[in-house]
Amino acid sequence: MNEIIRGVVKGVLWTIGAVILIGAVIVFRLAHVSEPEKTASLDFRGFVPLPDGASLTVLDYVTISDQRLFVTNESNGSVYKVALKGAGLPQPGDVTEFKSEPATHGVALTPSKTVAYVTRSEVNAVDAFDPQTMKAIARVPVSEDPDGVIFDSIHNLVYVANGDAHLATLIDPVTHTVAATIPLGGKPEFPALDPQTGLIYQNLRDINAVAAVDVANRSVNATWNLTGCEEPSGMAFDQDARRLFIGCAGNARLIVFDLATHRVTATVAIGAGPDSVAFDPQLQRIYTAGKAGILTVLQQESHGTYKLLDSVKLHYGAHTLAFDPTTHRLFVAYASLFGPPRLAVFDPRTQH
């Protein structure tokens, strides 16, 4: 019996030691911030510090509109607005803040850029706010787990992906009230509006599929399986080539989904836990970032193949990004522990 007890105690101690070691590694990776390694495709320009709001800060969505960058702090509920300055790096004085409850996620702006919307999953609401003054305008209660959000300029509606509720909420931007909900048949992640058809393409993470949402008819037109993709998360849209670029969080792949044939035409290995995907149509580059802190840079070739340009080790938890279509500059949001959160800034190199 004593041998059995000693074996159990030994096993427990080994387990505790392993947990402590893993915890220490995670703490170190979050607390220690270094400059990214040099790459062939990108020039690192520096960090933009953001206000320090919590011991552990997880930044979520990054949205760029008219030389303004909005980034959400999932940990404390803040939305930061960063004034962009062309080739110069934003300074602390260029950052303003809209404070409210956590957890914040997506941001979308109306075409006039006078009203913005942010999703808040812990209070199941969407806040309308003034992006100039960063003050609240109205709060719209919605279904469970509001996350991704876009403005549907074709139908003049705010489209909200409600993850746990498995539906989309449509908000009237004039009255700031819910106009309708659309059952989606799965847990929605990132959506993308197709200006050509008026449809919204919506990733459904739990069933490994993408849906075509018909906002006008308040219905789902079709749902297609994403072969080779586990847990689709981030999405970017190549409007000219009619392709969706979808990050697969469960198996670290980027898939290319052809909207003419409704099938997956390419699969590329990328960094683990991919969350955000961005596409630069002028440079024909695809960027992905994930929970493992790996920034993947892919080049879309003219014949529809994909070349890996770089796989850049950044910072653990750096899972969200956006690019500025005016300057082609790339911004990646870093998680932080015991320090201020920050954005890493990169300029593309066009010669390799």
Account of the 3D structure:
The structure is a single chain. This protein is mainly β. It has one domain: YVTN repeat-like/Quinoprotein amine dehydrogenase (Methylamine Dehydrogenase, Chain H, 7 Propeller). The protein has one helix at about 1-30; strands spanning about 40-50, 55, 60-65, 70-75, 80-85, 95-100, 105-110, 115-120, 125-130, 135-140, 145-150, 155-160, 165-170, 175-185, 190-195, 200-205, 210-215, 220-225, 230-240, 245-250, 255-260, 265-270, 275-280, 285-290, 295-300, 305-315, 320-325, 330-335, 335, 340-350. The model is unreliable at about 25-30 (pLDDT under 50).
CATH superfamily: YVTN repeat-like/Quinoprotein amine dehydrogenase
Distance between the termini: 67 Å
Mean pLDDT: 92
What shape does the CA trace take?
A: globular
Please describe the topology of this protein.
Layout: H1 2-31, E1 42-49, E2 56-57, E3 59-65, E4 68-73, E5 79-83, E6 95-98, E7 104-109, E8 116-120, E9 125-130, E10 135-141, E11 146-152, E12 157-162, E13 167-172, E14 177-183, E15 188-193, E16 200-204, E17 209-214, E18 219-225, E19 232-238, E20 243-248, E21 253-258, E22 263-269, E23 274-280, E24 285-290, E25 294-300, E26 306-313, E27 320-323, E28 330-334, E29 336-337, E30 342-348
Antiparallel strand pairs: 1-30, 2-29, 3-4, 4-5, 5-6, 7-8, 8-9, 9-10, 11-12, 12-13, 13-14, 15-16, 16-17, 17-18, 19-20, 20-21, 21-22, 23-24, 24-25, 25-26, 27-28, 28-30
List key phrases describing it.
four-stranded antiparallel sheet, about 350 residues, globular, mainly beta, Methylamine Dehydrogenase, Chain H
